[in-house]
From TrEMBL:
GO terms for cellular component: cytoplasm. This is Coproporphyrinogen III oxidase. Keywords: Iron, Iron-sulfur, Metal-binding, S-adenosyl-L-methionine. GO terms for biological process: porphyrin-containing compound biosynthetic process. It comes from Lysobacter capsici AZ78.
Length: 451
């Protein structure tokens, strides 16, 4: 991989490292591995349960998630049945376990109607060792799918965090994102969420939209702040292959695949810095390049979950599961045809097949170390030397000497206990993630044929 000093000469937005390795590094597992064997040697007393609902009212132009817009109603019903089959088979394979975090994502889970939402919560209660009322439990919504009855069902089930993608309060900017959204619908949805009494409201905004300026971005942030959300995420726009915006860009010879390269200079860094400063002035704490937390956000008195160390169990087509040595999921696609084919394959499976992992990636010792470093370093407080040493038996600076470049180039500070990115380092998080990606994973990502 290139030297960090050389990468810093490129524009800062190279790739978003929200998970490592990325799903484009996954491949078929032959022969399939029984889940009971995969989880047998893992700690199962502090797991994260994630359910994926891959349905939406419409597909936004920037979206590369595993999602299908306006599915046939019968397919939705069949999907919920399959989710229960998968959850039951997975819980049996886990044997003794405990979930301490829960999220219902997508897609748009609130695309489901009231009775379907009740069905989802009922299956979780039946098959998983989990108490949603006693742990952090979140759901993703979109403005047009929010109504009082759905929110009531979610709150009564134990959901305490609602995350809603606004992207922008400017109707011209959401049109540029190929997102049919009206501000009055957004305002009404926020009001309904507040009325329902959820302790945590998160709002997502995007910067880098065509026609957006610093002034218009700050106006959207100020509109969001008027609702005093407990959390705000600021996402840079990435135009990815096979998304609506990606198809437009591809006609003009745009970037494809995972490759570090110069991109046209844009205003995203200036927009990020302006947005960050506005939120810090408003009293928010920066947790990562993207996440900002309000001073009035509730303190979570809940069982500890550590994303670097504890496992995740994903249920549903498109959901990922993480053990220490193997990550697995269903296949990945973006184009509607590819998503529909993968979904049909999921719907045709028998329950016994859900007791095995047949698609994913095994992490050797080096990849396990890299994942731990990426997951720790790109959020605050940062990478603890003692925690790394306890897990891997050596110091992180010895295992990955390239980390010393962060200090030498003024992107991080190290007091002997904690290696932590400073403000400049956080601003370059989307360069640092790709920089820490191994050559082998980068090659697998480049070789992946996205459908």
């Amino acid at each position: 991989m290139p030297r960090l000093a050389d990468l810093l000469r490129l524009p800062p937005y190279q790739a978003y490292s929200y998970s490592y390795p990325h799903k484009t590094a996954y491949r078929p597992i032959e022969p399939p591995r029984p889940l009971s064997q995969l989880w047998a040697g893992e700690r199962r007393d502090a797991l994260f349960l994630y359910l994926h609902v891959p349905f939406c009212s419409y597909r936004c132009g920037f979206c590369n998630l595993f999602a299908l817009a306006r599915p046939d109603p019968a397919k939705v019903e069949r999907y919920l049945q399959q989710m229960e089959h998968q959850l039951r088979a997975t819980a049996a394979a886990l044997a003794e376990h405990r979930f301490v975090r829960f999220a219902l994502g997508g897609g748009t889970p609130t695309y489901l109607d009231v009775e379907q939402l009740r069905q989802v919560f009922a299956m979780v209660e039946r098959h998983a060792n989990i108490d949603l009322r006693a742990i952090p439990a979140g759901i993703e919504v979109s403005p047009e799918t929010v109504d009082a009855e759905k929110l009531r069902v979610c709150r009564e089930a134990g959901i305490d965090r609602v995350s809603m993608g606004i992207q922008s309060f400017s109707e011209a900017e959401v049109r540029a994102l190929v997102r049919p959204q009206q501000r009055e619908v957004v305002e009404r949805a926020i009001g309904a969420i507040r009325e329902a009494g959820f302790p945590t409201l998160n709002l997502d905004l995007i910067y880098g939209i065509a026609g957006q300026t610093v002034a218009s971005f700050l106006a959207s942030i100020d509109s969001a702040l008027s609702h005093a959300p407990e959390e705000l995420y600021l996402y840079p726009l990435y135009v990815r292959p096979l998304t609506g915006l990606g198809r437009i860009e591809a006609k003009n010879g745009g970037k494809t695949g995972f490759v570090l390269q110069p991109e046209p200079l844009d205003e995203r860094l200036a927009l990020y810095q302006a947005g960050r400063d506005r939120l810090l002035q408003a009293g928010y704490t920066q947790v990562s390049m993207r996440m900002f937390r309000a001073p009035h956000a509730p303190d979570l008195a809940a069982p500890v979950y550590c994303c670097q160390s504890d496992g995740m169990v994903g249920i549903g087509c498109g959901a990922r599961s993480y053990t220490g040595r193997l990550h697995y999921s269903s296949e990945y696609g973006v184009a509607r045809r590819s998503v529909a084919e993968i979904l049909d394959h999921y719907l045709a499976r028998d329950e016994a097949s859900f007791a095995c992992a047949d698609y994913g990636i095994e992490l050797d010792a080096d990849e396990q170390r890299r994942r731990y470093v990426i997951q720790s370093l790109l959020i605050r407080p940062g990478l603890e030397h003692a925690g790394y040493r306890e897990r891997f038996g050596a110091d992180c600076l010895d295992d990955l000497p390239q980390l010393r470049d962060l200090i030498e180039l003024g992107l991080a500070d190290d007091d002997g206990a904690l290696l932590a990115l400073n403000d400049e380092g956080l601003a370059r998080a989307d360069t640092l993630g790709p920089w820490l990606t191994s050559a082998a994973i980068a090659q697998r990502m480049r070789d992946y044929r996205l459908g």
